[in-house]
Amino acid sequence: MTLQQEIDEKARTIHTESYSMSIGELANMYEDEELEIHPEFQRVFRWDIDQRSKLIESILLGIPIPSIFVAQREDGIWDVIDGVQRLSTIFEFMGIFRDDSGNTVSGSQLVKTPYLKSLENKQYENKADPTNSLTMSQRLFLKRGKIDIKIIKKESDSDVIYDLFQRINSLGTKLSDQELRDCAILMVNKDFYKWISDLSSYSAFENCLDLSEKDYAEKYPREIVSRFFVIRHAELSIIRKQSNFADFITDFLVKFWKSDDYNKEQEAEVFKRTFDLLNSTLSQDSFKKYSTTKEKFEGRFLVSAFEATAIGLAKNIDQWNYSEQTLPETNRRLREKVIQLWNNPQFTDNVGRGVKFNARIPAVVELGQNLFR
Question: Angle at the Cα of 227 (from 222 to 229), degrees rounded to 5?
């Protein structure tokens, strides 16, 4: 197939249109629940008061605002793909923004900006303090400000929505892979987002991790949960062929949720049984390096240890049957096997720097699967 044929074929799957709308029209759509801006995204996209004030400044000065991308759902509602923070900033300032519990948030007070020093302490409208509110004419000017809307119509390929979201936000916003993945998954299915979130908060799982504050801020526990399901089910031969593992995880998870091949309840059960056993055996030492000279686990969480141990154990979890009476012996056997892992050159040769993920993952997962059998 030639380049032009590929362009023509793919272009037929994407249906778009574009037109300008006033901020007042968008606010009315939002209040009528015809525009979904996903308040859950606020955990990822959070501007400080300086950034929010500069956006309002731009509108009041007539400076054009970048286009907003939306996807039209089957029910006609628009899902915002790009522009969540811009719209939520405007709606919050106007005093109509709803948080993810459906509660309206009071409009914030702005700070002075490079061109409008008098924005200091200004609100959209405060009847109790009109001197620190925008005037009627200023509010009308803001509501009449125009924003260009790019609409992905419902006839488009369903994969276009989350793919477009990833492309736009990976280019323009410094987010972790999991933060981008969370938002992409939210575009596909909120239940799936909650499912992964609940598992990442499972106490036994949390006890097995030793992560930094930065890791938690960037949603790394959710990244680890995502890796667990992808690596457990993906063909190792397919992983060997990948050049971008972050994109592969996202694509796999979206297909995972849509597929009837996976029983989500059973998947959650395997996850919990795996980390219950690891927690009772090693807890925070589960994925740390074992020093043979010091005869102890040390350091911080290592993703290679997780791939070999958690995935290897999960693939064999049905063989690890134990009772309350036999748990101490089961813990002893599992601890010995984890130590064996760190004494195996096939493992240690594949966990150092310079080893690419598409070589490391197949090697350590196959080793773990055999070791924990």
Answer: 100
Considering the domain architecture, whether residues 142 and 190 belong to the same structural domain is answered as: no
Residue 171 lies in a domain: no
Q: Where are the alpha helices (DSSP H) in 211-302?
A: 213-217, 220-233, 236-239, 245-258, 264-281
Q: Are residues 244 and 356 in the same domain?
A: yes
Residue at 169 is within a domain: no
Do 67 and 196 belong together in one domain? no
**N-terminal to C-terminal alpha carbon distance within the chain:** 46
What does the pLDDT profile of the chain (373 residues) look like in tens digits? 788 777 666 655 566 788 899 999 999 999 999 998 875 655 555 688 999 999 999 999 999 888 888 888 888 889 887 788 899 999 999 999 987 778 888 888 999 999 999 999 999 998 888 899 999 999 999 999 999 998 877 654 555 665 666 565 554 445 667 776 776 676 667 788 889 989 999 999 999 999 988 888 778 999 999 999 999 999 999 999 999 898 899 888 878 877 777 788 999 999 999 999 999 999 999 999 999 899 999 999 999 999 999 999 999 999 998 898 999 999 999 999 999 999 999 899 888 777 899 999 999 999 999 999 9
What is the extent of the structural domain holding 238?
176-371
For the chain, give the number of residues: 373
In this structure, are strands 296-298 and 289-291 parallel, antiparallel, or unpaired?
Answer: antiparallel
Collapsed DSSP state (helix, strand, coil) of residue 225: helix
Cα(198)–Cα(66) distance, integer angstroms: 35
278/349 same-domain check: yes
